[in-house]
């Protein structure tokens, strides 16, 4: 790789770092303007004004906003997420188990949806214009048009209420068997996989079609190369960047979908923790959860951009 490529990669990493700082400022401002007073929420309606004022002073809520932001940002940089207002314990201890549960859900969803979506997207591109391609495209558009909460509600009505195959609520626990694992994750995974698989199929199909229409693929076809060789040797390696980009962008939809899914199925993940923290005005917990979501999104997008740069044949 030449120095120009590495300068592009370095520039993209610097942009991601700057974006993270901007996002941190936005998250802090957004949580600071939430309605209500956290001191009043914690002490209750019967609290005296003196008690509320004392608690605000103890939690440094009367300090200037800029000072609180710099203090909070410095804590993030050093790994200190602060203390939860509602639970009076380190935020990291609250987030740790919940983050592990969310990672389990995201991992199972990824293992289930990515191989299927890539296979269907590549197949639809190869069989472009066929009945399979048209039916798959129609199904993808239909799924994309349906919001996550509708898919989750339909899954509950079908599999939990009518068929009684799966529990309506998903509780993360140690699975003793593969069947037990399926029962724990089936409903959330079905909902999330519907959304991200549809997006991934659409973008993978578009990336493969663009690659299959390039002159070097057409030259390989004219030379008599087999369809399998054309796809595996010529098309897929050069479509790697766009496909990775499609996977990363599709997985980023997990961040929005997981909030709805964890709330509907009462799954004890980090998104459900953030939703509960909003009701108690637990600002350090809300801010830390939001930053984790933003960090994961930036990592996915940055990884996709770096892979696209390194796999671009024009930059080799």
UniProtKB/TrEMBL annotation:
Keywords: Cell membrane, Membrane, Transmembrane, Transmembrane helix, Transport
Membrane topology label: Multi-pass membrane protein
Coiled coil, from the record: none
A Pfam family it matches: BPD_transp_1
Domain ABC transmembrane type-1 stretches: 99-304
Top-level taxon of origin: Bacteria
Subcellular location: Cell membrane
One BP term from GO: transmembrane transport
Name by which UniProt lists this protein: ABC transporter permease
């Amino acid at each position: 790789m030449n120095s120009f490529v590495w300068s592009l990669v370095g520039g993209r990493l610097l942009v991601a770092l700057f974006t993270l700082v901007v996002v941190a400022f936005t998250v802090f401002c957004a949580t600071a303007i939430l309605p209500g007073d956290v001191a009043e929420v914690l002490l209750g309606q019967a609290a005296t004004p003196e008690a509320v004022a004392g608690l605000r002073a103890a939690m440094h809520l009367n300090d200037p906003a800029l000072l609180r932001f710099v203090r909070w940002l410095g804590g993030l940089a050093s790994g200190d997420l602060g203390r939860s207002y509602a639970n009076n314990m380190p935020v990291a201890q609250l987030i740790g188990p919940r983050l592990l549960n969310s990672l389990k859900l995201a991992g199972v969803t990824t293992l289930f949806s990515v191989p299927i979506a890539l296979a269907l997207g590549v197949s639809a591109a190869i069989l472009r214009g066929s009945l399979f391609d048209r039916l798959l495209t129609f199904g993808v558009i239909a799924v994309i048009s349906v919001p996550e909460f509708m898919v989750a509600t339909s899954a509950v009505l079908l599999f939990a209420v009518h068929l009684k195959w799966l529990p309506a609520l998903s509780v993360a626990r140690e699975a003793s068997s593969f069947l037990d694992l399926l029962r724990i994750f089936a409903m959330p995974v079905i909902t999330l996989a519907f959304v991200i698989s549809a997006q991934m199929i659409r973008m993978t199909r578009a990336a493969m079609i663009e690659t299959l229409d390039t002159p070097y693929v057409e030259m390989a076809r004219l030379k008599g190369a087999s369809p399998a060789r054309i796809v595996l040797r010529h098309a897929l390696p050069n479509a790697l960047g766009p496909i990775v980009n499609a996977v990363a962008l599709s997985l980023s939809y997990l961040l929005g979908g997981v909030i709805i899914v964890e709330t509907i199925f009462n799954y004890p993940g980090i998104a459900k923790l953030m939703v509960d923290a909003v009701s108690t005005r637990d600002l350090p917990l809300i801010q830390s959860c939001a930053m984790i979501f933003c960090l994961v999104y930036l990592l996915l997008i940055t990884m996709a951009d770096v892979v696209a740069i390194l796999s671009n044949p024009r930059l080799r």
